[in-house]
Specification:
26% of the residues lie in helices and 24% in strands. By secondary structure, the protein is an alpha/beta fold. Helix 8 links the parallel strand 16 and strand 17. It starts with a strand and ends in a 9-residue tail after the last helix. The chain binds zinc ion (ZN). Zinc ion binds next to loops.
Length: 367
């Protein structure tokens, strides 16, 4: 089969949602970013771990059950990143023939697919690592394994999810574990609980206790709590965030209004940033992580403004692992894992999982 350079410009899919300004915004496209897949990508080195081992820090207090000590070694190669959106639990409700259904097919994966992907990641030797270590170039992995920064965008459970077979919010179960609310009950079928379970099953699937990065906007609240004037909802978010932070999850800004940082004025970026920080100050606390909506990179002035607001680690979207440091900002890329990727990047994704075995039979034909 001939190698062919595919150039895919992922453009607007209108998943209508009410934006920060009260207008209707087109959501969840990766517009403005040229996502380039170049035939079979070179496999990462089997391991570029250095020989000198660094023992994992020992917990000072007993953990029940005792976690086996995982021996970690430094990683010197590039660090891959992949991202998802909240998972689809009921494909029949999501994948209807309307425009929204097309958007779900193109930009989301189902819970069944995500379970298959986690299994592939584990079998193919990947280990979740901390985004701060990836940014600093101090990643460590268990011997023989490869580092991966996992992230999830728009962990807001927008109103447009209603009736489309996705969860409605993140919530703690009676034992304090993070689950997703679906209908009247709690489910494991979402990114956070499924990753938590995979790490519990396979401690070497995580290094340094890392899980992933959850990116939230602010215009419809946080984590599915849509009315943050309600003290009970605020208390729920604070308890949830405490548990997420305690279990290896980091939280990133995805801007307040899911704005296009490549197009908006500096004044608009400043205003949006203030709104996100005001909303999250007492509920999340400070974060130095920012994930660009649509993967759209700001210009130098916008990047510096965001840096001065504390976001010194910024993420875009690409199909190659990239980490560059510009003007005091570490920029890291992430691959989008979704229907688009299943359709066009089978060989590039083979290092992570086998698309053919992962694709949900309930998904519409890949296009
Ligand atoms: Zn987004």
């Amino acid at each position: 089969m001939r190698r062919r350079l595919q150039v895919t410009v992922l453009t607007v899919v209108a998943l209508a949602a009410v934006g920060a300004t009260g207008g209707v915004l087109a959501k969840l496209h990766y517009g403005g970013v040229r996502v380039v897949a170049a035939g079979p990508r070179p496999q990462p080195l089997p391991t570029s771990a250095s020989p000198e081992a660094t023992p994992a820090p020992q917990p000072t207090r007993a953990i029940h059950p005792p976690a086996p000590a995982v021996r970690l070694v430094h990683w010197r190669g590039p660090v891959e990143g992949i991202f998802f959106h909240p998972l689809i639990l009921a494909p029949k409700l999501a994948f209807r023939g309307d425009q929204l259904g097309r958007g779900f097919a193109d930009y989301f994966v189902t819970a069944r697919e995500f379970r298959g992907i986690l299994d592939g990641l584990w079998r193919n030797g990947w280990t979740l690592v901390d985004a701060h270590r990836a940014a600093a170039g101090t990643v460590r992995v268990p011997v023989g394994r490869k580092p991966l920064v996992l992230s999830e965008d728009d962990v807001n459970y927008y109103a447009y999810f209603n009736g489309r077979g996705l969860s409605s919010r993140l919530a703690l179960d009676p034992s304090g574990n993070v689950k997703a609310e679906y209908g009247a009950g709690l489910t494991d079928d979402d990114v956070v609980p499924l990753v938590d379970e995979e790490v519990a099953r396979h401690p070497e699937f995580s290094a340094d206790g890392a899980k992933g990065v959850l990116a939230v906007t602010g215009y419809e609240g946080l984590f599915g709590e849509h009315d943050l004037t309600d003290p009970a909802a605020r208390a729920r978010v604070q308890a949830l965030v405490a548990q997420l932070h305690a279990t290896g999850w980091l939280i990133a800004s995805h801007t307040y209004g899911h704005i296009d940082l490549s197009k908006d004025s500096l004044a608009a970026i400043a205003r949006d940033t203030s709104r996100w920080q005001a909303l999250t100050r007492d509920l999340i606390g400070p974060t130095d992580l920012l994930i660009y909506p649509f993967g759209a990179r700001p210009g130098a002035a916008g990047r510096a403004l965001l840096r001065d607001a504390g976001f010194t680690i910024q993420f875009d979207i690409d199909v190659t692992a990239d980490r560059t440091i510009v003007d005091g900002v570490v920029m890291m890329s992430r691959r989008h894992i979704d229907g688009y990727a299943f359709a066009g990047q089978v060989r590039a994704l083979a290092q992570f999982f086998d698309v053919a075995t992962v694709v949900d039979p309930a998904r519409p034909r890949l296009s």
